[in-house]
Design a protein that fits this description.
Blueprint lengths: L1 H16 L16 H7 L7 H14 L7 H7 L3 H10 L3 H4 L18 E8 L4 E6 L10 E10 L4 E6 L12 E7 L5 E6 L13 E5 L12 E8 L12 E9 L35 E5 L16 E6 L3 E3 L4 E3 L14 E5 L9 H5 L3 E7 L2 E6 L5 H10 L9
GO biological process, one term: regulation of DNA-templated transcription
InterPro entries: F-box-like_dom_sf (IPR036047), F-box_dom (IPR001810), Tubby-like_C (IPR025659), Tubby_C (IPR000007), Tubby_C_CS (IPR018066)
Family: Belongs to the TUB family.
């Protein structure tokens, strides 16, 4: 049985899921009918106890990518395999590993950060987030998220997607965006799904002619946070000063016994075959979707308390090197104004322990030409951390 599963994983990986490095591994949210699975898949009739043991062994043995793709293969076999795999696989906060696309929107581990790196392509204005310490020679690193920079007349947008070749906001790969103001000093993070029930989309609308928009769920944007860089009018020497307000995470998440909002599923159905909606004059289906402007203020429930605020950790001045220095623990090797570490900015009334106040929740820094490291941990998710790091790439002459 173990050899059979291994052979299926290898053949499936070589033939299908690993044929393109530009997409994240996505498990179908709507599997075929159970009767179809029984007819087409001999593995669907395994006893539940045996199936539980098989998937549990695969999950424990394949802890790193690309071998961890075997866990994804198990979830894609049929409905019964998928349900058991979802029960076994824990969230990144619990196990410290990324498995499914929804893991990118769940909080990271509490004890040690998840280490990633970002590769920038200046020619195409794209930014690719990979899972790993540093780029590998075999080009086999796991792609997590991708972003494309789009300059507009009054702002700059970073469209964030699960795929490096699909940045259409009406597609299933779209997960959110980052938008700056005209000066590039304030940014707003938008999520494609509400992180909690208290978040609502804006009331403005745009129209899309697309066959990929699901009629069950409009392509809304939800404002989940803001990033602000302090103006440096006198152009004095020193690092950038930034503040991040995360409206989707309460400050109680970093208190003793606190928890951060954890979504359990993506809103889109990635493999659903959609029939075109009726339209006139032969055009594609016309969908009304919410599109928040930069002025939209997210509504945070009164019972959740204050939102979590992050600030950059103050560096120290190194007399011998004559520069500002931070301890990145070997993860950053090139001095850059873009480098930063974020810690919680709390008040005494929040009752946050000194250890939590000193903990680096997100760090970002340069290690080579167009290569940057990104390490994040609880309560941030990979999507939130990536959006914050993207803000450092935008030109901010008034902040430097």
């Amino acid at each position: 049985m173990k050899d059979g599963i291994g052979n299926i994983s290898k053949r499936g990986g070589e033939r299908k899921l690993w044929r393109s490095r530009t997409r994240s591994h996505v498990v179908p949210d709507q599997p075929p009918a159970e009767s179809e699975c029984v007819e087409q898949c001999p593995w669907a009739n395994l006893p539940p106890e045996l199936l539980l043991d098989i998937i549990h062994r695969v999950e424990e043995s394949e802890t790193a990518w690309p071998a961890r793709a075997a866990v994804v293969f198990c979830a894609a076999v049929c409905r019964s395999w998928r349900e058991i795999t979802k029960e076994i696989v824990k969230t990144p906060e619990q196990c410290g590993r990324l498995t499914f696309p929804i893991s990118l929107k769940q909080p990271g581990p509490r004890e040690s950060p998840i280490q990633c790196y970002i590769r920038r392509d200046r020619a195409t204005s794209t930014y690719l987030l990979f899972y790993g310490l540093v780029p590998s020679e075999g080009e086999s690193d796991k792609l997590l998220l991708a972003a494309r920079k789009v300059r507009r007349a009054t702002c700059t947008d970073f469209i964030i997607s699960l795929a490096a070749d699909d940045f259409a906001r009406a597609s299933y790969s779209y997960v959110g965006k980052l938008r700056s103001n005209f000066l590039g000093t304030k940014f707003t993070v938008y999520d494609s799904q509400p992180p909690c029930d208290s978040m609502i989309p804006s009331t403005t609308h745009r129209r899309f002619h697309s066959k990929q928009v699901s009629p069950r769920l409009p392509a809304c944007n939800y404002s989940i946070g803001t990033i602000a860089y302090e103006l440096n009018v006198l152009r004095t020497r020193g690092p950038r000063r930034m503040h991040c307000i995360l409206h989707s995470i309460p400050v109680s998440a970093i208190q003793e016994g606190g928890t951060a909002p954890t979504p359990l599923a993506l809103p889109q159905s990635f493999d659903e075959q959609l029939s075109p909606l009726p339209s006139s004059k032969g055009k594609g289906p016309l969908i009304e979707t919410g599109s928040p402007s930069l002025a939209v203020t997210p509504l945070f429930s009164l019972g959740s308390g204050d939102p979590l605020t992050l600030k950059n950790k103050a560096p120290r001045w190194h007399e011998q090197l004559q520069c500002w220095c931070l301890n990145f623990r070997g993860r950053v090797t090139v001095a850059s104004v873009k480098n930063f570490q974020l810690v919680a900015a709390v008040e005494p009334a929040h009752n946050v322990s000194p250890e939590e106040q000193e903990k680096v929740i997100l760090q970002f820094g340069k290690i080579g030409k167009d290569i940057f490291t990104m390490d994040y941990q609880y309560p941030l998710s990979a999507f939130q951390a990536f959006a914050i790091c993207l803000s450092s790439f935008d030109t901010k002459p008034a902040c430097e």
